[in-house]
Amino acid sequence: MSFWNRRRGIDDATAAHGAQRAQLRRSLGWPHLVALGVGGIVGTGIYTLTGEAAALAGPAAMLSFLIAGAVCACAALAYAEMATMIPVAGSAYTYSYAVIGEGWAWIVGWSLILEYTLVCSVVAVGWGGYASGLIHQAQLPIPEALMHAPGAGGVIDLPAIFIALAVAALLMLGTRESARVNLVLVIVKIVALAGFVAFCAPAFDAAHFSPFMPHGFAAHEVDGVKMGVMAAASIIFFAFYGFDAISTASEEARNPGRDLTIGIVGSMLICVLIYMAVAASAIGAQPVASFAKSAEPLAQILRLLDHPKAAALIGGAAVVALPTVIMVFMYGQSRVFFAMARDGLLPQRLAAVSAKRGVPVAVTLLTGVIAATLAGFMPLSRIVALANAGTLCAFIATAASMMILRIREPQRQRRFRTPWWPLIGTVAIVGCLYLFSSLPAETLHFFLIWNALGLLIYLFWARHRSALAPS
């Protein structure tokens, strides 16, 4: 089983490669990376999952946001250290390959494929929900069955399919071009959320926070549904990750040591402040029951506050700005595919980079088609938790890689050093394991099935074609 533990090594992973090894173009500065992080983090989670979190935890959803954010912050610090040490495409997959071994790297990469593809689908469905609301307001003659997936009472979600393919087309134009579009849309998104907070402030009522924790703290089942603060945290955890996509841009950062650190840590700090302000405003402005089941909770709250025009603007901002999340995660997915293909663990034609645009066009198109297909036929609630499982696996692997390297190679140069690394690494791993155990049982079963399938592919195909396989 030596193939299971064979490692590429940090020096080999970061070495300059010859012309025969596909490389991405370094074209991104730290403003692009901060925008990439904020664009990935602030999205469907705050626009659509606020209601789901409130339904599971009541006003204590505030605490759920705080717990999920704290775990993500610890993981973000580990990512910052690893990304600056190994500034090449692949994120947690690449770190695991260099530190732990190929077999484990495959599991992490396979989980990242699950995470990024499903996140793209989740956000496309969320965008479709807001787009459908605007379509209804405009009274356009589009059948309801064509705006919802089968599990949501329709036949196909055409708005979700449209946006997934449109974002894929934009990414194929080039990394810098899509990064500029992302930066503009991120500004639109932040301005819209600031407007939401401003409209909610006059209606703030502290009585809406009592009882604060109606469903308890620990995750427990009620009528087949996991309830409580930790159950909500395991779902809205989705609202915080996105910074990990920055690490997939390592190979395209102009100054990796500086730009990646600012991008990862800076975007997390900005987004934690935004989330806490929006969540407090939402719960303070309206009783939880009034928006807990809404597909567009922020717009719903503004309508209840008798601000129909502001609600329409929030919906419009979501329609305009949510594609930034799809863009970020589809970008990350294509880079993970690219890294695995370059290492021989996936078909190497997927590692082909356009000489003109400097991006992996084929794998970006493949990612867009898969995301569009899932978004068109799967309901939001079942996709979210499964994406979380893949993310938690990647976070655990990155934190573990950081800790292993601190012990194995303490003298290796680190451009960013995780403070109190034993504590931060442990909190990240234990926190992620606890959140993982709080996921719905169905999600855990699907995740195990996904990885069992992945292991079969690795054992019978990928390990023999690996760049490290004996010739």
UniProtKB/TrEMBL annotation:
The keyword Membrane applies. This is Amino acid permease. It is a multi-pass membrane protein. The lineage of its organism: Bacteria, Pseudomonadati, Pseudomonadota, Gammaproteobacteria, Nevskiales. It comes from Solimonas marina. The keyword Membrane applies. GO terms for molecular function: amino acid transmembrane transporter activity. It is found in: Membrane. Pfam families: AA_permease_2. The chain crosses the membrane at residues 30-49, 61-82, 103-127, 147-171, 183-204, 224-243, 264-290, 310-332, 358-377, 383-407, 419-437, 443-461. It comes from the Bacteria.
